[in-house]
């Protein structure tokens, strides 16, 4: 009995005062606190715990800490907006099931209106309203519903014009936008980038240049958002046209030798220093990258080489590339024969098939992956806010 009593004493929990003291020692250590915050997993949780005290908020919102947090926990993909040919509005399809993201997913699914999504970046949508009398553009922030819809003023009328949400370095805030305008002039092109800041009624010319073209401007299939003063357009002739505003230069980039079909899409990724090409052949998926400073086709490097799509293998059918998110984590695919939409997480190779969506034809799908906002929006404290620390 004496031995049992001694063993019980050894394994008994410490008194409450001792436990509180131990916890206080841990949380009063700034280095330990940062390591604990670093393991939260989601930016939404980080924002909530930052309300504990001013000290916690100071650590959680520090730029150096946020850089570490982002490397470990990239912005989560909440889902994607899907619009089929003839549909008046897109529908939101959740991807994440994490309970920490439930509120964000609910808000993303509540975006309403008859519109076409022109660009989707960092928790915002640049939309074009379906209006028989006018083509109106606006910015929606589904994760911050109090912002409502910010209508954009008309842009200058040029031959070609594309609207985008701004990159981080553009000096533009949440409701801003970028317009890329092009006027073909034979073997030259006049190019202009206009910037719109929140609440402004006027576009401001940010860059303008007359650029020599390697040949008369070929028909353009689509254009990527401008990155570091460079504009990339995929032509219908199967080349990539790069327009460098700063250097007033252009070039036609050749595709990798193995890319012999138009079953691919392009992306500049989140960092914007590399051009990515995501290509499918049969049931195999490959991704190449090309430095933005290069114009040599030999500089294409393979990132993922001939990754098998298991669902396509099991069904013995080909896949078509539809879209990719900005972090280059998820690629959305269409199974041609069975008419099924799916996505693959590239790092883990995990796949999800959306049989329940009943999508009719992948050739006319418009998919916009929708991600969490980064950096996270922390509360702005007032002097009378009662936070200790």
From TrEMBL:
Domain F-box protein AT5G49610-like beta-propeller span(s) in chain numbering: 117-378
TM regions (residue ranges): none
Listed InterPro entries: AT5G49610-like_b-prop, F-box-like_dom_sf, F-box_dom
Occurrences of domain F-box (ranges): 30-66
Identification of the protein by name: Uncharacterized protein
Source organism: Panicum hallii var. hallii
Lineage: Eukaryota, Viridiplantae, Streptophyta, Embryophyta, Tracheophyta
